[in-house]
Amino acid sequence: MKKPPVRVLVVDDSALMRKLIPQMLAADESIDVVGTAMDGTFCLKKIEELKPNVVTLDLEMPGMNGIDTLKEIMRRQPVPVIVFSSHSTEGASVTMKALGLGAFDFVPKPKDATAHMAETARELIAKVKAAAECKLKPRMLPGVQPKAEKIPASSAAPNKVVAIGVSTGGPQALEYVLSHLPGDFPAAITVVQHMPDGFTDMFARRLDEVCPLRVKEAQSGDILQRGRVLICPGNRHMKVKRLPLGDVVVLGDEARVNGHRPSADVLLRSVAEEFKTQAIGVLMTGMGDDGAVGLGEIRAAGGYTVAQSQETCVVFGMPKAAIERGSVMRVAHLQDLPDILQTQCAPDRSHEDAKEVKRSTSAGSN
Does the pLDDT at position 50 exceed 80? Predict the structure, then answer.
């Protein structure tokens, strides 16, 4: 049987965007724009009337703005929401807030409404269809917690390097994992989150506010440190490099890989090559198959690999591709990932255990 089309409500105060967005979505016959609304008040009424499967929401509207509208949608009857976001610093900040309030994902507004139409249309169509298929109900994260107390950077080299690849649904999932790791976590963490240029810095700042770990947007030459998380900037690739004076990340502008820059495969392959048995690879929620090959290389090099479970993924694309390739050693629910990482990165206790056995034997012979 043919699936019914995905019913979409378009909400934007710009008459031009209310015309352009339905035109973009009309390119896919499995999507049906059932209505438009010019502000939040009309949006809430039309959700009740039209029962859309997905809402596209402008964040900058007069009257009831996008954030207030999103809160009301989540409070009344959660529907997957894809927000349209401007490229400004303020736009990035509001977008991170929207994701924390339960928005499914976001699409940056082209600076020129008629430029990059085809690229924006492809991204929007893919995200609308993924949102419609999502089985997880949208959920709000708790509000911004008090700033987590940081532990001073350790001069000791990290005992492991964790490389995480994540896409759609990633901001909430990453916030959960990183906020449940202690500030004295003994490994360094590197992250590729599929996100455009201009948004990753704000994302890293948000994570730094709520996590005991130190989080920053990566710069070339940043040293891999215990208890620090480096987020790859949008529109760059990130690799790791072992050097005599310390292990560092290196950013590059090579061509897209799997359609992405940053690409999880680029990071994971690099970590496998440089750190081998000290490498841990994690693939989390996201569309597509980016990271599946790189995760396999970490496994082949003697490292440890884990993928987020279907039940806890917003989109079970990247983890599924890695599982099907045989790249994954363990599949785990989101809530179990922090404990798994702590177990895998725990200091080697074999020497202490041997000393304990020796002490016990000596005590028994006296």
Answer: yes
The residue annotated as part of the active site, out of 85, 105, 194, 327, is 194
Between CA 55 and CA 12 the distance in angstroms is: 11
In angstroms, rounded to a whole number, what is the distance separating the alpha carbons of residues 118 and 114? 9
The tens digit of pLDDT for each residue in 145-201 reads: 556 678 888 888 899 999 999 999 999 999 999 999 999 999 999 999 999 988 999
Burial of 35-74, coded b for 16+ CB within 10 Å and e otherwise, reads bbbbbbebbbebbeeeebbbbbbbbbbeebbbbebbbbbb
Q: What is the DSSP letter of 99?
A: H
Q: Are 269 and 293 in contact (CB under 8 A)?
A: yes
| Residue of 85, 167, 270, 327 marked catalytic | 167
**Which of 9, 78, 20 shows the shortest CA–CA distance to 49?**
9
- The H helix count followed by the E strand count for the chain is 12, 14
Please state, in angstroms and rounded to a whole number, the distance separating the CA atoms of residues 70 and 104. 11
Distance in angstroms between the alpha carbons of the first and the last residue of the chain: 80
- How far apart are alpha carbons 239 and 357 in whole angstroms? 42
| pTM as predicted | 0.89
Q: Within the chain, where are the H helices? A: 15-25, 40-50, 66-76, 89-100, 117-133, 170-179, 200-210, 264-275, 292-300, 318-324, 337-345, 350-365
Question: Which is the catalytic residue, given 12, 247, 265, 290?
Answer: 290
Contact 65, 40 (CB under 8 A): yes
- Spatial distance between the Cα atoms of 143 and 203, rounded to a whole number of angstroms: 15
pLDDT in tens, 232-258: 999 999 999 999 989 999 999 999 999
Residues, the chain = 366
Q: How many CB atoms lie within 10 A of CB 206?
A: 21
- Name which of 166, 169, 162 is nearest 338 in CA terms: 162
Closest C-alpha among 144, 125, 141 to residue 133: 125
167 is catalytic: yes
